[in-house]
Write a structure and sequence with these properties.
It contains 3 helices and no strands. The chain has one domain (18-111): de novo design (two linked rop proteins), CATH 1.20.1440.60. The protein is elongated and about 50 Å long. The protein is mainly α. Helix 1 runs antiparallel to helix 2 and helix 2 packs antiparallel against helix 3 (79-111). 77% of the residues lie in helices and 0% in strands.
């Protein structure tokens, strides 16, 4: 379920250090990769291909959650934004983990 991002003008609270910029860029890369890989999974050519691509989505979701944890520990951004983004990343990881497990289970059962 999508939740609305808090609108609190937190942009001014973000420090403009090179390290923070790099962390945000790495997070952006993993976060946008989730959507791209999920789109590819939905266009999979076989069940094996779908399972493989969902595993990539799950990996990227886990990496995004990691970056959100680093944001939180480094206090990058407002506390409200950090909490919301970490919750979103955690929920996405749970969703894609569930999809991957269910898909693998159904695929193994269909082969038997």
């Amino acid at each position: 379920m999508r939740k609305k991002r808090p609108a609190n003008g937190s942009q001014t609270q973000r420090p403009h250090r090179t390290q923070n910029f790099e962390i945000r860029n790495w997070n952006l890369e993993s976060a946008t990769s989730i959507g791209a890989n999920y789109r590819e999974a939905n266009r999979a050519e076989s069940k094996d291909d779908f399972i493989h691509k969902i595993a990539l989505v799950e990996k990227e979701a886990g990496e995004t959650q990691y970056w959100m944890e680093l944001f939180n520990e480094s206090e990058i951004g407002s506390p409200e934004d950090r909490a919301w983004l970490l919750q979103e990343a955690t929920e996405l990881l749970a969703i894609f983990t569930s999809i991957g497990k269910t898909s693998k289970k159904k695929y193994r059962n269909s082969k038997s």
